[in-house]
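Annotators were shown the component list below and the corresponding predicted structure, then asked to write short factual statements about the assembly.
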Amino acid sequence: MMENDPLKNVLRDWHAPEPPDALAARLRTAYREQYRPSPWRVFWLTRVSVPAPALAVFAIVILALFLQFRSTPAPVAPRVDRGYVTRMEATGFQPLPNGAARVVSVEGVRQ
Amino acid sequence: MDEISASDARLLQQARRGEEAAFLDLYRRYRRPVFQFAWRLTGSETAAEDVAQESFLALLDGAAYNPAHGGLRTYLLGIVRHRAMRRVRAAERECEDPVGDESPSEAPDALRSLLDAERAELVGRAVAALPLAQREALVLFEYEELSLEEIAQITGAETGAVKARLFRARESLRKRLAPLLAASTARSSR
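Structure shown to annotators:
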Protein backbone atom coordinates (compact mmCIF):
# COMPACT_ATOMS: atom_id res chain seq x y z
CA MET A 1 0.00 0.00 0.00
CA MET A 2 2.70 2.39 -1.02
CA GLU A 3 1.91 5.96 -1.96
CA ASN A 4 3.58 5.59 -5.39
CA ASP A 5 1.56 2.48 -6.18
CA PRO A 6 0.31 2.88 -9.82
CA LEU A 7 -2.97 1.24 -8.85
CA LYS A 8 -3.61 4.07 -6.42
CA ASN A 9 -3.18 6.60 -9.24
CA VAL A 10 -5.51 4.70 -11.53
CA LEU A 11 -8.14 4.39 -8.81
CA ARG A 12 -8.07 8.18 -8.43
CA ASP A 13 -9.51 8.43 -11.96
CA TRP A 14 -12.82 7.14 -10.68
CA HIS A 15 -14.53 10.30 -9.45
CA ALA A 16 -17.76 10.20 -7.53
CA PRO A 17 -20.42 12.83 -8.24
CA GLU A 18 -21.21 15.54 -5.75
CA PRO A 19 -24.40 15.13 -3.75
CA PRO A 20 -27.21 16.92 -5.63
CA ASP A 21 -28.71 20.08 -4.13
CA ALA A 22 -32.13 18.47 -4.23
CA LEU A 23 -30.99 15.98 -1.61
CA ALA A 24 -30.86 18.69 1.07
CA ALA A 25 -34.44 19.71 0.30
CA ARG A 26 -35.56 16.07 0.34
CA LEU A 27 -33.92 15.49 3.69
CA ARG A 28 -35.38 18.65 5.19
CA THR A 29 -38.87 17.58 4.16
CA ALA A 30 -38.36 14.08 5.51
CA TYR A 31 -36.97 15.45 8.75
CA ARG A 32 -39.95 17.78 9.21
CA GLU A 33 -42.38 14.94 8.60
CA GLN A 34 -40.63 12.75 11.13
CA TYR A 35 -39.73 15.32 13.74
CA ARG A 36 -42.44 17.94 13.48
CA PRO A 37 -42.83 19.03 17.10
CA SER A 38 -46.31 19.50 18.55
CA PRO A 39 -47.39 23.07 19.42
CA TRP A 40 -47.22 22.12 23.13
CA ARG A 41 -43.68 20.89 22.71
CA VAL A 42 -42.72 24.09 20.91
CA PHE A 43 -44.32 26.09 23.72
CA TRP A 44 -42.50 24.24 26.48
CA LEU A 45 -39.17 24.21 24.68
CA THR A 46 -39.25 27.85 23.60
CA ARG A 47 -36.51 29.87 25.22
CA VAL A 48 -36.56 33.61 25.71
CA SER A 49 -33.43 35.56 26.38
CA VAL A 50 -33.87 38.49 28.78
CA PRO A 51 -31.05 40.75 29.98
CA ALA A 52 -30.53 40.47 33.76
CA PRO A 53 -31.20 44.21 34.48
CA ALA A 54 -34.49 44.03 32.59
CA LEU A 55 -35.43 40.92 34.52
CA ALA A 56 -34.60 42.68 37.83
CA VAL A 57 -36.73 45.73 36.92
CA PHE A 58 -39.59 43.43 35.92
CA ALA A 59 -39.34 41.55 39.24
CA ILE A 60 -39.35 44.84 41.21
CA VAL A 61 -42.42 46.10 39.33
CA ILE A 62 -44.26 42.85 40.00
CA LEU A 63 -43.35 43.02 43.70
CA ALA A 64 -44.50 46.67 43.94
CA LEU A 65 -47.82 45.85 42.27
CA PHE A 66 -48.30 42.95 44.64
CA LEU A 67 -47.68 45.12 47.68
CA GLN A 68 -49.92 47.89 46.33
CA PHE A 69 -52.91 45.74 45.62
CA ARG A 70 -52.65 43.03 48.18
CA SER A 71 -55.89 42.63 50.16
CA THR A 72 -55.79 44.22 53.65
CA PRO A 73 -57.69 42.44 56.40
CA ALA A 74 -61.10 44.03 57.15
CA PRO A 75 -61.29 45.87 60.54
CA VAL A 76 -62.96 43.82 63.23
CA ALA A 77 -66.30 45.42 64.15
CA PRO A 78 -67.08 45.60 67.90
CA ARG A 79 -69.57 43.03 68.93
CA VAL A 80 -72.99 44.52 69.66
CA ASP A 81 -75.41 42.44 71.64
CA ARG A 82 -78.87 43.28 70.54
CA GLY A 83 -81.37 43.87 73.26
CA TYR A 84 -78.98 45.62 75.67
CA VAL A 85 -78.20 49.29 75.95
CA THR A 86 -75.05 50.74 77.25
CA ARG A 87 -75.54 54.25 78.33
CA MET A 88 -72.60 56.36 77.45
CA GLU A 89 -73.94 59.56 79.00
CA ALA A 90 -72.57 59.68 82.55
CA THR A 91 -74.17 62.99 83.66
CA GLY A 92 -75.81 62.67 87.06
CA PHE A 93 -74.37 59.28 87.54
CA GLN A 94 -74.30 58.21 91.10
CA PRO A 95 -72.73 55.02 92.21
CA LEU A 96 -75.02 52.66 93.99
CA PRO A 97 -74.64 52.77 97.69
CA ASN A 98 -74.25 49.07 98.10
CA GLY A 99 -72.30 48.66 94.94
CA ALA A 100 -74.67 46.09 93.53
CA ALA A 101 -75.12 46.23 89.76
CA ARG A 102 -78.11 44.96 87.87
CA VAL A 103 -78.47 44.28 84.16
CA VAL A 104 -81.82 45.20 82.74
CA SER A 105 -83.16 44.56 79.24
CA VAL A 106 -84.31 47.30 76.83
CA GLU A 107 -87.91 46.35 77.47
CA GLY A 108 -87.30 46.75 81.22
CA VAL A 109 -85.89 50.25 80.71
CA ARG A 110 -88.81 51.30 78.46
CA GLN A 111 -91.32 50.09 81.00
CA MET B 1 -12.92 13.11 22.88
CA ASP B 2 -11.77 15.67 20.27
CA GLU B 3 -13.56 18.91 19.49
CA ILE B 4 -15.26 17.67 16.31
CA SER B 5 -16.60 14.55 18.01
CA ALA B 6 -17.95 16.61 20.89
CA SER B 7 -19.54 19.04 18.46
CA ASP B 8 -21.01 16.15 16.43
CA ALA B 9 -22.45 14.57 19.55
CA ARG B 10 -24.02 17.87 20.57
CA LEU B 11 -25.52 18.46 17.12
CA LEU B 12 -26.88 14.93 17.03
CA GLN B 13 -28.50 15.39 20.42
CA GLN B 14 -30.11 18.65 19.28
CA ALA B 15 -31.27 17.10 16.01
CA ARG B 16 -32.87 14.24 17.93
CA ARG B 17 -34.72 16.82 20.03
CA GLY B 18 -36.22 18.28 16.86
CA GLU B 19 -33.83 21.13 16.08
CA GLU B 20 -33.76 21.23 12.29
CA ALA B 21 -30.77 23.58 12.07
CA ALA B 22 -28.61 21.08 13.96
CA PHE B 23 -29.72 18.29 11.63
CA LEU B 24 -28.85 20.35 8.55
CA ASP B 25 -25.45 21.20 10.04
CA LEU B 26 -24.75 17.49 10.40
CA TYR B 27 -25.91 16.91 6.85
CA ARG B 28 -23.61 19.62 5.49
CA ARG B 29 -20.67 18.13 7.36
CA TYR B 30 -21.09 14.57 6.12
CA ARG B 31 -23.10 14.74 2.90
CA ARG B 32 -20.09 14.13 0.65
CA PRO B 33 -18.66 10.98 2.26
CA VAL B 34 -22.17 9.59 2.84
CA PHE B 35 -23.40 10.19 -0.70
CA GLN B 36 -20.18 9.23 -2.44
CA PHE B 37 -19.72 6.03 -0.41
CA ALA B 38 -23.31 5.07 -1.18
CA TRP B 39 -22.77 5.86 -4.86
CA ARG B 40 -19.59 3.77 -5.03
CA LEU B 41 -21.34 0.81 -3.44
CA THR B 42 -24.60 1.01 -5.38
CA GLY B 43 -23.34 2.49 -8.66
CA SER B 44 -26.46 4.60 -9.01
CA GLU B 45 -27.12 8.23 -8.14
CA THR B 46 -30.77 7.60 -7.41
CA ALA B 47 -29.96 4.72 -5.10
CA ALA B 48 -27.20 6.77 -3.46
CA GLU B 49 -29.66 9.60 -2.78
CA ASP B 50 -32.12 7.18 -1.22
CA VAL B 51 -29.42 5.55 0.88
CA ALA B 52 -28.07 8.93 2.02
CA GLN B 53 -31.53 10.09 3.05
CA GLU B 54 -32.29 6.85 4.88
CA SER B 55 -28.91 6.93 6.61
CA PHE B 56 -29.24 10.47 7.93
CA LEU B 57 -32.73 9.74 9.23
CA ALA B 58 -31.62 6.41 10.70
CA LEU B 59 -28.88 8.26 12.52
CA LEU B 60 -31.57 10.06 14.48
CA ASP B 61 -33.49 6.91 15.37
CA GLY B 62 -30.50 4.74 16.07
CA ALA B 63 -28.84 3.76 19.29
CA ALA B 64 -27.00 6.43 21.22
CA TYR B 65 -23.84 7.48 19.45
CA ASN B 66 -20.80 7.18 21.67
CA PRO B 67 -17.93 9.44 20.53
CA ALA B 68 -15.53 7.34 22.60
CA HIS B 69 -16.04 4.49 20.11
CA GLY B 70 -15.05 6.51 17.03
CA GLY B 71 -16.04 9.51 14.97
CA LEU B 72 -19.54 10.20 13.74
CA ARG B 73 -18.29 9.85 10.15
CA THR B 74 -17.31 6.23 10.83
CA TYR B 75 -20.63 5.64 12.59
CA LEU B 76 -22.56 7.15 9.66
CA LEU B 77 -20.61 5.18 7.06
CA GLY B 78 -21.52 2.04 8.99
CA ILE B 79 -25.19 2.91 8.54
CA VAL B 80 -24.64 3.72 4.86
CA ARG B 81 -22.89 0.40 4.34
CA HIS B 82 -25.76 -1.50 5.93
CA ARG B 83 -28.39 0.29 3.83
CA ALA B 84 -26.41 0.14 0.59
CA MET B 85 -25.62 -3.55 1.03
CA ARG B 86 -29.30 -4.35 1.36
CA ARG B 87 -30.00 -2.59 -1.93
CA VAL B 88 -27.06 -4.13 -3.75
CA ARG B 89 -28.01 -7.62 -2.62
CA ALA B 90 -31.64 -7.06 -3.59
CA ALA B 91 -30.55 -5.73 -7.00
CA GLU B 92 -28.24 -8.69 -7.52
CA ARG B 93 -31.05 -11.10 -6.70
CA GLU B 94 -33.31 -9.39 -9.24
CA CYS B 95 -30.69 -9.09 -11.97
CA GLU B 96 -28.58 -12.07 -12.83
CA ASP B 97 -26.19 -9.97 -14.86
CA PRO B 98 -25.29 -7.08 -12.60
CA VAL B 99 -23.46 -4.00 -13.80
CA GLY B 100 -19.72 -4.54 -13.92
CA ASP B 101 -19.99 -8.29 -14.11
CA GLU B 102 -18.36 -8.48 -17.48
CA SER B 103 -15.56 -10.99 -17.90
CA PRO B 104 -12.12 -9.57 -17.19
CA SER B 105 -10.85 -10.71 -20.58
CA GLU B 106 -13.19 -8.25 -22.34
CA ALA B 107 -11.79 -5.27 -20.51
CA PRO B 108 -8.26 -5.03 -21.95
CA ASP B 109 -9.42 -4.64 -25.59
CA ALA B 110 -11.68 -1.78 -24.68
CA LEU B 111 -9.08 -0.08 -22.55
CA ARG B 112 -6.63 0.71 -25.33
CA SER B 113 -8.39 3.72 -26.78
CA LEU B 114 -10.03 5.17 -23.76
CA LEU B 115 -10.45 8.81 -22.97
CA ASP B 116 -10.34 10.01 -19.39
CA ALA B 117 -14.05 9.53 -18.88
CA GLU B 118 -13.85 6.03 -20.21
CA ARG B 119 -10.90 5.29 -17.96
CA ALA B 120 -12.95 6.45 -14.99
CA GLU B 121 -15.83 4.30 -16.09
CA LEU B 122 -13.60 1.28 -16.47
CA VAL B 123 -12.15 1.75 -13.02
CA GLY B 124 -15.67 2.07 -11.66
CA ARG B 125 -16.78 -1.06 -13.41
CA ALA B 126 -13.73 -2.96 -12.23
CA VAL B 127 -14.42 -1.92 -8.65
CA ALA B 128 -18.11 -2.75 -9.06
CA ALA B 129 -17.17 -6.23 -10.24
CA LEU B 130 -15.39 -7.00 -6.97
CA PRO B 131 -17.18 -9.10 -4.38
CA LEU B 132 -19.11 -6.86 -1.98
CA ALA B 133 -16.84 -7.39 1.01
CA GLN B 134 -13.74 -6.52 -1.03
CA ARG B 135 -15.44 -3.58 -2.70
CA GLU B 136 -16.50 -1.92 0.52
CA ALA B 137 -13.06 -2.43 2.08
CA LEU B 138 -11.38 -0.93 -0.98
CA VAL B 139 -13.75 2.04 -1.22
CA LEU B 140 -13.43 2.84 2.48
CA PHE B 141 -9.65 2.56 2.35
CA GLU B 142 -8.88 4.24 -0.97
CA TYR B 143 -11.64 6.80 -1.29
CA GLU B 144 -12.79 7.53 2.24
CA GLU B 145 -9.22 7.16 3.54
CA LEU B 146 -10.22 5.28 6.66
CA SER B 147 -7.78 3.22 8.67
CA LEU B 148 -7.94 -0.57 8.79
CA GLU B 149 -9.26 -0.33 12.36
CA GLU B 150 -12.06 2.02 11.31
CA ILE B 151 -13.01 -0.22 8.40
CA ALA B 152 -13.05 -3.20 10.75
CA GLN B 153 -15.37 -1.25 13.03
CA ILE B 154 -17.75 -0.39 10.19
CA THR B 155 -17.84 -3.82 8.61
CA GLY B 156 -17.77 -5.78 11.86
CA ALA B 157 -14.80 -7.82 10.65
CA GLU B 158 -11.39 -8.41 12.20
CA THR B 159 -8.62 -6.05 11.15
CA GLY B 160 -6.73 -9.01 9.67
CA ALA B 161 -9.75 -9.95 7.57
CA VAL B 162 -10.03 -6.38 6.29
CA LYS B 163 -6.37 -6.42 5.34
CA ALA B 164 -6.83 -9.69 3.48
CA ARG B 165 -9.89 -8.36 1.61
CA LEU B 166 -7.98 -5.26 0.62
CA PHE B 167 -5.09 -7.36 -0.62
CA ARG B 168 -7.37 -9.57 -2.71
CA ALA B 169 -9.26 -6.55 -4.06
CA ARG B 170 -6.05 -4.88 -5.15
CA GLU B 171 -4.74 -8.05 -6.73
CA SER B 172 -7.97 -8.48 -8.62
CA LEU B 173 -7.93 -4.84 -9.79
CA ARG B 174 -4.33 -5.14 -10.92
CA LYS B 175 -5.38 -7.95 -13.23
CA ARG B 176 -8.51 -6.22 -14.49
CA LEU B 177 -6.86 -2.86 -14.97
CA ALA B 178 -3.51 -4.12 -16.23
CA PRO B 179 -3.57 -2.04 -19.47
CA LEU B 180 -4.47 1.09 -17.57
CA LEU B 181 -1.73 0.41 -15.06
CA ALA B 182 0.80 -0.14 -17.83
CA ALA B 183 -0.18 3.14 -19.49
CA SER B 184 -0.01 4.96 -16.20
CA THR B 185 3.44 3.56 -15.46
CA ALA B 186 4.62 4.48 -18.96
CA ARG B 187 3.30 8.05 -18.55
CA SER B 188 4.99 8.52 -15.19
CA SER B 189 8.32 7.11 -16.43
CA ARG B 190 8.43 9.60 -19.35
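Statements collected:
1. DSSP finds five helices and no strands in chain A.
2. Helices of chain A lie at 6-11, 21-35, 39-45, 52-69, 106-110.
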